[in-house]
Write a sequence for this structure.
């Protein structure tokens, strides 16, 4: 079964960096995932795709502070030089035959 | 500029029906799969349904099969979701999302709408 696991919460200080993790279920370590950001009371925004080789393709207008990487079944979203507007929920997403799957989301707090 | 604008949400009694619409612009509509995703109050994102660019391939979340029907009109650049036999647990913000490619299960989403709220209550 295709499942994505995310930590419910994360926090980091203004100006620091943070690395969010999305873990693919067993047998699915080769899958590409997408990262989406959702600020309070707003619709989600696509950030990037992250492939198993660590390469990533960012969406329109996504700042350079956002980057993606991979290791095994884990896919990462790193945000550097944290700003107040980075405080949001971050969801990973993947897809397979006849299905789309979201992780439970990570709530990022900027201290 | 890609724009996705949902409409059709509202308050509906349990057991009744509702039809959501999504008006798309800023891209070649029939080249892309389209999706509905919902978010219950205080909860995460849940994929509802997807449809390929030519409507030949359609998928639904297992929990929804039989009650919801997705469709599209490429001449009108519009996506629809017919929701029947609504239940209180269907209460959510419903988002329209654009697939990156033509088939609904071969890529993720690269644009989202702002959502339309569906409240199922007596």
């Amino acid at each position: 079964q295709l499942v994505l696991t995310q930590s419910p919460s994360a926090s980091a200080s203004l100006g620091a960096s943070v690395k969010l993790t999305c873990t693919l279920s067993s047998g699915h370590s080769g899958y590409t995932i997408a990262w989406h950001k959702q600020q309070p009371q707003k619709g989600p925004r696509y950030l990037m795709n992250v492939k198993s080789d660590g390469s990533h393709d960012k969406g329109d207008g996504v700042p350079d502070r956002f980057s993606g990487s991979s290791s095994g079944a884990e896919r990462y979203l790193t945000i550097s030089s944290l700003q107040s507007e980075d405080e949001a929920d971050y969801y990973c997403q993947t897809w397979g035959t006849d299905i789309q799957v979201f992780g439970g989301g990570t709530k990022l707090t900027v201290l | 500029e890609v724009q996705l604008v949902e409409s059709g949400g509202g308050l509906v009694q349990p057991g009744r029906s509702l039809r959501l619409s999504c008006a798309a612009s800023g891209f070649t509509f029939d080249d892309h799969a389209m999706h509905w995703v919902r978010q219950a109050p205080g909860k995460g994102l849940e994929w509802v349904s997807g449809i390929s660019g030519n409507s030949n391939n359609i998928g639904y979340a297992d929990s929804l099969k039989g009650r919801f029907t997705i469709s599209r009109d490429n001449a009108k650049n519009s996506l629809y979701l017919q929701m029947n036999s609504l239940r209180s647990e269907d209460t959510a913000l419903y988002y329209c999302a654009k697939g990156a490619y033509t088939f609904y299960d071969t890529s993720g989403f690269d644009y989202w709408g702002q959502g339309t709220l569906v409240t199922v209550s007596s």
Observations:
- DSSP finds no helices and eleven strands in chain B.
- Chain B has a mean pLDDT of 96.
